[in-house]
């Protein structure tokens, strides 16, 4: 499991999304600089707008990298990617308490549901349990 690698990358200054996605570059066949650049804007719930958690967004990006056939003429894989996305979204909500960064951080309620490092850990588990394990089925 790469949960602690993700947390270490976040401590190094990576966004939550970069920390999750960059932990799986080798498994997904993408170089770290490219992954870092792709996921940069997801941080802080999409550019610090406190929208959908960046860690979850990165896990979903990993699902696309794993499942997409990249068939530009006849896009044919989104259904299978959506299956993984729905499962990850469901499990992330169960574990973190919400999907939106603002809710997770307790903005407006004062009740923090999950800290950012734990969101990274959850998202890493989802990549391993759902995205990477799916290819072994």
Percentage of helical residues?
55-70%
The SS-based structural class is: mainly alpha
Poorly predicted regions = none
Whole-number total of structural domains: 1
Number of helices: 9
Largest sheet: none
Rounded to an integer in angstroms, the radius of gyration calculated over CA atoms is 14 Å
How much of the polypeptide forms β-strand, as a percent range?
Answer: under 5%
Instruction: Provide mean pLDDT, rounded.
Output: 94
The number of E-state strands comes to 0
User: Helix-strand pattern, N to C?
Assistant: HHHHHHHHH
The gross shape turns out to be globular
N-to-C span: 19 Å
Outline the structure in words:
Helix content is 65%, strand content 0%. The protein has helices spanning 3-11, 16-22, 25-28, 32-39, 43-46, 54-67, 78-96, 101-105, 116-134. The two termini are 19 Å apart. It has one domain. Helix 2 runs antiparallel to helix 4 (32-39), helix 6 (54-67) runs antiparallel to helix 7 (78-96) and helix 7 runs antiparallel to helix 9 (116-134). It has 137 residues and is an all-alpha fold. The protein has nine helices and no strands.
